[in-house]
Predict the structure.
Amino acid sequence: MSKMPLKEVRVFSPATVANVACGFDVLGFAIEQPGDEIVVRKSDKPGFRITKITGDDGRLPLDPKLNTAGVAVLDLLRNLGKSDVGIEMEVHKKMPFGSGLGSSAASAVGGAFAVNRLLGEPLSRRQLLPFVVAGEAAADGAWHADNVGPCLLGGITLIRSNAELDVHNIPIPENLWASVIHPDIVVLTKVAREIMPRHVQIETSIQQSGNLGGLICGLFQSDYALIGRSVHDLIAEPHRQRLIPEFYRAKKAALNAGALGFSISGAGPSVFALCEGEKVARTVAQAVTEVFSAVPIKATAYVSRINPKGVHVLSES
Ligand code: HSE
């Protein structure tokens, strides 16, 4: 029996933690919550339109050419030779702007994934990578797949080369949990990238490479102690920590509460800890939230396993 063409698709596109301390621009993982919801539907009127955006405090433009999800979809449709197909999209933002949770990546991935599904999946998930990276690049002006990779493919992804989009899934240790805490301030990725050092000392590069290799080995071997010894960032964190009030106090609280490691999620201000087991992850989330609350800054914690699925369909008809 041939499948009926779809009229409408609703997808969930998860938040992601990029860099994972030692993997600046080359490592990221997806979490269970929060995540954007994107709805696409066929329309009799030719061409692609964004008809509604919610949860963005009026910040995001409806013009697809100026919107990360729109840029990804327009690029995809052009490449498929389907720019004239009538498609409407709604973007329901469930995570804050400038949060370090991969918000623009989630919209770009959700949009392209949903439209590809609506069109009968002419492309595989992996083949959507160039379009979603282009969508995210429209937001921060940089070409990196450490948010879109895990959002699209799920789990933990290593980007061997951003230029070639050589992206690989890394095994997820069974009892690995993440605590991700979002302090309610805004850090623009563009600004956080501008304060990165242009050069690093060879000794720093050697240590960072050792840690990245150690983390990947630890993940492959479910060696939690090795993961803990490796989750250190000697390149971005020393510069970006000043964008996050009480960063080192929060880090100390997380490590004292049993975290394997703690650092900045993507460009910040969200921070994350990797933990062995749910109980530790919840204790760490509580300890870090208390540090921010004392500033006082409102903080929201998300505790989850690594999300193996990535973007997925919620409903379709
Ligand atoms: N790797 C990127 C950065 C992630 O840290 O700038 C931001 O989305």
Q: What stands out?
A: Residues 176-305 form a domain with the Alpha-Beta Plaits fold (CATH 3.30.70.890). The CA atoms of residues 246 and 292 lie 7 Å apart. The first helix runs from residue 68 to 80.
